[in-house]
């Protein structure tokens, strides 16, 4: 890991990289389908009824799982970041931006189908999901901390 002046804020006192909060927010946002599925497993009476509260069709639930799969891969990669970075983690981080963009695009299709399902009615939840989706796109484009974190892990 080649640190440059100003990189002190990206590293802990132990020498490990700090995971950006923006990346954690993105992963949580993209894996909300998996979170809804886990919550539905605890609802013993009717598991499908709780999932229908979040997703009106099974295709939407499938899209949510598809959007969350690359985010789960990125989460596993983040758990492997230690003081010494293993070479396979470093090479795997080269595809992290592509995985996050893929999740963002699939999630956009999912949100488009959720919003168009009941188009004329306003829903605060849909508005917040759309705002979160736009925020994630903004962070993927312009977050210097996220870009520097990935560059430090790639060890270019």
Can you characterise this structure?
The protein is mostly helical. It has one domain. It contains 8 helices and no strands. It is elongated. Keywords: Membrane, Transmembrane, Transmembrane helix. This is DUF2919 domain-containing protein. It holds the Pfam family DUF2919.
Overall average pLDDT: 87
How helix-rich are the residues, as a percent range? 55-70%
Main pleated sheet: none
Pairing-aware structural class of the strands and helices? mainly alpha
| Gap between N and C termini | 9 Å
Counting DSSP E segments of at least 2 residues, the number of strands comes to 0
Percentage beta strand: under 5%
Low-confidence stretches: none
Number of domains: 1
Write the H/E string, N to C. Answer: HHHHHHHH
Radius of gyration: 18 Å
Shape: elongated
